[in-house]
Amino acid sequence: MSARKSARGFFGDAFAIFGAATAAAAAVEGNRRPLDRDLYTLGINPANFHSVKR
Q1: Those residues with Cβ within 8 angstroms of residue 33's Cβ, 6 or more apart along the chain or in another chain
Q2: pLDDT by residue (tens digit) across 8-38?
Q3: 3-state SS, residue 54
Q4: Taking the complete model, does pTM exceed 0.85, yes or no?
């Protein structure tokens, strides 16, 4: 694997995680449930999200 491809993957993952965190935080602040896609990106099992306390 070339250095360029691995660097692009790292930054792509970093932006995906940042975006998911931002979207999930906004949903929680708005008293809504975050999307399953965002929870999976953050490593949170959507089935267990309701048990997380603020």
Answers
A1: 27, 49
A2: 688 889 999 999 999 999 999 999 999 999 9
A3: coil
A4: no
Residue 32, amino acid: R
In whole angstroms, give the CA distance from residue 28 to residue 51.
13
Contact in structure between 37 and 20 (CB atoms under 8 Å): yes
Residues 51 and 31: their CA atoms lie apart, in Å, by: 15
Tell whether the model's pLDDT for residue 1 goes beyond 80: no
Q: DSSP assignment of the chain, as one string?
A: --HHHHHHHHHHHHHHHHHHHHHHHHHHHTT-PPPHHHHHHTT--GGGGGG---
